[in-house]
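RETRY 2/3 - previous attempt timed out on the joint model. Re-submitting the same 1129-residue input unchanged.
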Amino acid sequence: MSMGSSLCPAFSTFTKHSPLVFNRNVHAYPFLRNCNCIARGYSQKTVDSNVSVSEAPTRPHSEILRIRESLLSREKTAVEIAEDYLSRLKERETKIKSFLYVSEHALQEAEQLDKMVAAKSPLGPLAGVPFGIKDNLCTLDMPSTGGSKILEGYRPPFDATCVRKMKEAGALAIGKTNLDEFGMGSSTENSAFQVTSNPWDLSKVPGGSSGGSAACVAARQCTCSLGSDTGGSIRQPASFCGVVGLKPSYGRVSRYGLMAFASSLDVVGCFGTSVMDTAILLEVISGQDSLDATSSLLQVPSYSSLLPSIGSLETKPLDGLRIGLIKETVVDGVDSGVVSAIFKAADHLQVLGAKIQEVSLLSFSLGLPAYYILACSEASSNLARYDGIRYGNRAPADDLVSMYGNSRSQGFGQEVKRRILMGTYALSAGYYDAFYKKAQQVRTIVQTDFKNALKDCDLLISPAAPTAAYSIGEKTNDPLAMYAGDLMTVNVNLAGLPALVVPCGFTAGEGQKLPVGLQFIAAAFDEERMLRAGHIFEQTIGDLCFVPPLL
Amino acid sequence: MGELPLCQRMLLSLPSSFRVSHSYWRSQRPLPLLSLHLLRNPSLTSASPFSLLGYCHLSSLNAAPGVRRSKFRAHVATDEVRSTVSMDTLLPQFEAVIGIETHVQLSTDTKAFCSCPSQYGAEPNSNICPICMGLPGCLPVLNAKVVEYAVKLGLALGAKINLDSKFDRKQYFYADLPKGYQISQFDIPIASNGSIELDLPVELGGGHRRFGITRIHMEEDAGKLVHAGGDRLSGSPYSQVDLNRAGVPLLEVVSEPDMRTGLEAAEYAAELQRLVRYLGISNGNMQEGSMRCDVNVSVRKKGDEKFGTKVEIKNMNSFSAMQRAIDFEISRQVSLHGEGQASKIVQETRLWEEGSQRTITMRLKEGLADYRYFPEPDLPNVVIEKAFVDEMCSSLPELPNEKRRRYEGMGLSMQDVLILANDYDISRFFDEVLTAGADLKLAANWIMGDIAAYLKNEKMTVNDVNLTPEALAELILMIQNGTISGKIGKEVLVDLLREGGSAKSIVEAKGLLQISDPLTIAAMVDKVLAENPKQVEEYKSGKKKLQGFFGGQLMKASGGKINPTLMNKILLEKLNGN
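RETRY 2/3 succeeded.
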């Protein structure tokens, strides 16, 4: 099997899989126990014919499990896998520009892995999996700029916790991906270094701020990637690029090593080409971290082992699941192509047995302004450390105040400056009560509304963005239009809930059809339910192939 | 610019980048400093070992919000002579109102939000990590000891402990503040509404006082700027940053404006120092900056309700400096009132200059600084269980004021009470000597006298010597019952302080037991009288003073061991009897 075939996976490849060989690590990563069941179930073609699901050859499979299979069966070496990805990465990079930096060590690390395979040493659950890292996550052996000039060439002395966990699980860090400067933006056009293209249509934005991480997975430049989500920065680009994007509950994944944008909203999450892959990643990167006081002590469930194999599915696998479609997200003003894709998805969920009802979140429209006040307020504080004193770029000046001024005005981009100014304003004496405090009150209302809605429903669904990917440059001069694009996602951050975006359909653009993502929202720390529904949805959605045809 | 990883860069530049300079707080020893990524004068760069780093000098370093430098000088200095003439009549007409904000550096092993050691005096920038340097992506995690210490001090000050408090960010730009904000507590401090009770020194009039404590809150310290070429910013060509202190935990204790004199303020600070030392939460050392007092002083006409314009004074590194600074400031303000120049009292921060013994303007405050406080999102609320507070409460030692009241009740004079209760270790030692059965007054006298002198001489604390409370009690008893003389007792004490052991064993080993047998003494007297017939003759002819001479001879002959009372009795009998 060539890695190229993975672009539109052939169903038959699964039948080749031998059962996984378990090792000592299996206790640390119990999700692997069930993994081969999926493969087997698939090949046994036992899906009940009553399920109105076509057994399309396009059904997404787990790239991570495939790599593991290849390594363990000696079908491929880690070096071969890495070379495959690297050559594809380089070839497509000229068009996509999703990476700010490509690792020089990936092949050496792959060689090490091959030695371990040869020695039959235990392999981590992500052994040989090449992954991209959003450049606002600190990495020890690669520069970490946050997409900002002020940190150009900056090399942190440590790995972010999520990166460390990925490496410990055997994954190969393949490079740092492009983003809007410090995560501030929705199109990745605010990067100080380059503009990333959408692999579905190079004239379109990949979304943002984790645009590089979404585009590189969509373009199959790597298997999966890490991103961060403050107001939709994983989910909106996942939707634009047709990949699966997972935003965990606030506190599920350590933020240590994530360059803070808005500390109370920021979460680290991941991208993959299947729900299974994001579930495996989530399990690896989750957990309490003594370096992040806001990380949760809650036990990390074995997310991937909770995902059912298709073979074991009942007639109505989502029977009894109460799903609320958020009314305010499918109203006028939302792209009609997006709305119809979401309705179709809802129909499909109904076919799978779920009970779909419309839910109204009265505070829905309040979230966006509240979000921008809170996020900017926190950002104005979090970005104060970029002062040119200890690290990063310093602009020369004759005195301290001018040095601060020059370094920051030359180092930060326009959008970052705009947000620092707005945040500083909102926190200033005399304005605090009218802005920051009021926004906190709105946040509480949004949280309560979600809580109530999630009492009546097990999950909520909505689009991940009001439109599909738009053209590069289309909104760069209209910040408010850009902010409005975050309408579907910011409330989830305000409430700290987990959300999953799964590709569900397409809109017809001017030429190229563009993917649309369906957002599942669950109660805090109820990722399992969301992943299960997303997985079943994805595996049964039918004849849709979410691989960009341009590639 | 292409940068090395930060930690690596620091290691690389460490040996070459030491500079000898005096610390801001006039520390006695020269402090080598690391130029981190530094601010410096262009003229120095060519010769500087830091040439790979940028530069910039700090001619307008005073960038804290709402603040600017001023050339304004103390007014009173020029008018000192003139104003002192009328001061005697002016001063009684005015009343000073004094409030104090004290920063107490906690003696935790590690910093408030990271695991760096927090000890004082380490090589510059050696106790730092990505977290206290404020590197991108780093997060604070609260050291539980800080909460423990805060609760202890809160309880000791009789304050209300807030079971649910939170941290906030206090934001301003300064070169010693790595994150651009200080993690502090703003509207919900960990403790509030307490008070402190103290006894003024007897020699200065005495009296008991109770001052209100507004609040106690937890926060982190900033780093330290060291200005090249001296200890002041002005005139310094460049400054260096030492981040060892950045992130060291502090408790800020804010008093009510209850003090009226420099003495009261100094005694307030001394009592607070005593308290934190009793609690073992800080060494309270003002010279090292472990305890720093910012004093707000205003004056008003006696009987006035309204406060005058307050002036903040900083940079006092002893209690006596505090007292002098405040008294100077009161005089300055009162004399301005006396000259009808009250409007020249402006809201400002003034520095105490030890050299010239006066306060000078450091910076004027233009309205209130806007620190844009908001809740620290990286830290969850500080939620304390009541059981934890109860546990802390029961673990509190006897506090200075309780101790003083107890000693007073036992019948000690207030002067003795203040000396004995001043130091926690001394008072503990004293208590243990009493427990071992020693007489109250004798124990107090030995401790305040010979032992205190010895400790002072040897620059030791009572914990450093080998004398045990039991041995001292035994020694006191042996003197009391005549086993040894007081003079021998002093010698034995020195042995005990140096070597330890029991008083009895030393007395026995050295054969120092007092000679109290009348027959032995009589024989010794006979011998001395026989050896000095001339003096005996003179005595008998009326020169009674010679009794002292015989006594001296007897003491000498016995090596000081002869019981003086018995000796004198027998000597007189022999001299007068014949």
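The CA atoms of residues 140 and 405 of chain A lie 29 Å apart. Closing ticket.
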